[in-house]
Design a protein that fits this description.
Distance between the termini: 25 Å
Number of strands: 6
Shape: globular
Strand order of the largest sheet: 3-2-1-4-5-6
Strand content: 15-25%
Helix content: 25-40%
Number of helices: 6
C-alpha cells in the first residue's frame, strides 16, 4: 500500500493532543512514548522540507461535561494540574511550529485551524496523535467534511484500547483517506514533490 504521493507545499502535518496527561497514559496498541516519538520524527521530516507542522492541544479542564453513559471525566473529578496540559517533551514542539488550542475533541470547531490551512493552500492533512478514536477521529471527520485529503499514520496514534484504535483505522479512516505506517509516510515525504 505504498501508493502515496505527497505534494509538500500543499500538505500539513496535524498532531493531536501530545500533552503530558496523554503521553503518560497506558495506550494500545502502540505505547504513548512510541507514538510521541513517531510524531516528533514526522514533524522533523516535515520541518526539514519547509512543510507546515501544526500541534493541537486541548484545554482538558475546559472540555464540556455533558450527560453521558460513560463520561470521560467523572463528575467532581478535580481539574488536572497545569503541567498536565503542557506539550510532552517527547513531542519536540519547536518555535517554528503552529499551535492550535481547542476546547473539544475535534481541532476545527472554534479554532483557527481551517484558516491556517487555507491561507497556506493546504489540500492534504497528515494526522497523528492521541487518542485515535477521540481527538484524531473527530478532527478527521471535520477535515473530511471540509474537503481535505487525509493520510492517517497508523503507528503515530494510539488509544486507551487497541480495539478502538484498530476499529477506527480499519473502518472509518480507510473510507476517509489513506492509512499508512510511519515508514511509508516518511518514504513518501522523502520522495515528495515540489517545494514547501
Amino acid at each position: 500500500m505504498s501508493d502515496l504521493t505527497i505534494e509538500l507545499a500543499r500538505t500539513a502535518l496535524v498532531l493531536i493532543d501530545l500533552q503530558n496527561f496523554n503521553v503518560q497514559r497506558e495506550l494500545a496498541p502502540h505505547p504513548a512514548e512510541r507514538v510521541a516519538g513517531n510524531c516528533a520524527m514526522l514533524a522533523g521530516e516535515m520541518r526539514d522540507r519547509g512543510a507546515m507542522v501544526i500541534y493541537v492541544r486541548v484545554l482538558a479542564d475546559q472540555l464540556l461535561a455533558l450527560p453521558a453513559d460513560a463520561p470521560m471525566t467523572k463528575p467532581g473529578t478535580p481539574a488536572p494540574p497545569p503541567d498536565a496540559l503542557y506539550f510532552a517533551p517527547e513531542a519536540q514542539v519547536q518555535a517554528t511550529d503552529h499551535v492550535v488550542t481547542k476546547r473539544q475533541w475535534g481541532a476545527f470547531y472554534g479554532t483557527e485551524l481551517d484558516q491556517l490551512l487555507r491561507r497556506r493552500n493546504i489540500k492534504t492533512i497528515i494526522l497523528g496523535g492521541i487518542a485515535t478514536n477521540y481527538g484524531v477521529e473527530s478532527t478527521a471527520r471535520a477535515a473530511f467534511d471540509r474537503g481535505y485529503a487525509l493520510v492517517f499514520v497508523e503507528d503515530a496514534m494510539s488509544s486507551m484500547q487497541a480495539e478502538a484504535h484498530n476499529f477506527a483505522c480499519e473502518n472509518a479512516f480507510r473510507t476517509m483517506g489513506k492509512v499508512r505506517s510511519m515508514r511509508e509516510v516518511i518514504d513518501a515525504l522523502q520522495a515528495g514533490t515540489g517545494d514547501a
